[in-house]
Amino acid sequence: MNATPDSDRAPGPRHSDLLTIGQLGKRSGLAASALRYYESLGLIHATRTAGGQRRYTRGTLRRIAFVRAAQRVGLSLDEARVALDRLPSRPAPSGDEWDQVAASWQTRIDEQIAELERLKAKLTGCIGCGCLSLTRCALYNLGDRAGEAGPGARYLLTRDPATGPEPASPDVGSCGAR
Question: Which candidate, 100, 75, 72, places its Cα nearest to that of 86?
Answer without folding.
Answer: 100
